[in-house]
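We recall that each integer encodes one residue's backbone shape. We quote one record:
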Amino acid sequence: MTALNNKTAIITGAGSGFGAAIAKAYVAQGAKVVLADLRLDAAQAVAAELGKNALAVACDVSRADQVKAMVKQCVEHFGAPNIVVNNAGTTHRNQSMLEVDEATFDRVFNVNVKSIYHMTRAVVPLMQAAKDGVIINIGSVGSIRPRPGLTWYNSSKGAVKVMTKSMAVELAPDGIRVNLIAPVMSPTGLLQDFMGVADTAENRAKFVSTIPLGRMCDAMDVANAAVFLASAQAQFLTGVELPVDGGRSI
């Protein structure tokens, strides 16, 4: 039997990067998965690879109405979600904190933080009714060892870290586990913004030199952690902050 057999999962930002890798790993482990993404075409492309156990849904996670509609589609198509992975995220360019305008600040916090508020209100009552559920929030090593240039992004992920731990305590009596995965930099679509310089081999090497295990985070590193935290093998883990960072946060 596979680790997530008969489970239903919602993964946000599932059209690429960590989200797509988690979706593929979950389906491989027996789960039915809703791939929610702002870019429906990207989510549909991943879902097409995964077959009947994957459903792509367009969703702006910063909008409560769209999150509720997406969860409703999940319930109607696969049933109530047992697992939710709050993966959708964005950043501002690596630059002085004073150069980030208010609209960009708001977008970072709406996508990275407020989206979890919306998702929690939509899915937790369903999980409470079942007395079972797993919520995995994707944070960042930037909330553990913040560095200059990404101050507001790091702060948003710091909020997610505290939110995860507080949710874990509050929801534990309902049998709902809440954990956090904190990856280091990965070669995803946000890489150039994170670096704040051109995405060249030379510039990548400078950042990789700060990671003890000598490489960036691969999407499957995060997916493997997400499978474990959602599985019965992690049934006594809640409020955990799991760095997937090659030692970067040490």
